[in-house]
């Protein structure tokens, strides 16, 4: 038993064997020999079916966590890119507004210069 990773005393093994033997005899008395064998094999394999199911669920949970982590990483990257684009857009708007104001100033200066020239011609 120790080589299989089960560390129990010989007394525990004997107690378990006697308990299983009593249960099997009780089943044999109630159901008959053929049916009791089937039931006993199912009872013995049921914990394994549970352990396999649990492992399967844990594997699915791990996979979902990995997918969630990848999605969060991707989402944060896209959010950063979007914020950078918003800031660039805002910078370009301000730059356009500044250029528009400079153009307006130049137009006003030209208009003023033109009016001075006309005024000088009149005088």
Mean pLDDT: 85
The poorly predicted ranges are: none
Can you summarize the main beta sheet? none
Shape: rod-shaped
Helix percentage range: over 70%
Work out the radius of gyration: 43 Å
List the secondary-structure elements in sequence, H or E: HH
Measured between the Cα atoms of the first and last residue, the distance is: 122 Å
**Helix/strand class:** mainly alpha
How many DSSP-defined strands?
A: 0
Task: Compute the number of helices.
Answer: 2
How much of the polypeptide forms β-strand, as a percent range?
A: under 5%
List its salient traits.
rod-shaped; 2 helices; mainly alpha; 123 residues
Strand-helix topology:
Layout: H1 10-31, H2 33-122
Helix pairs in contact: 1-2
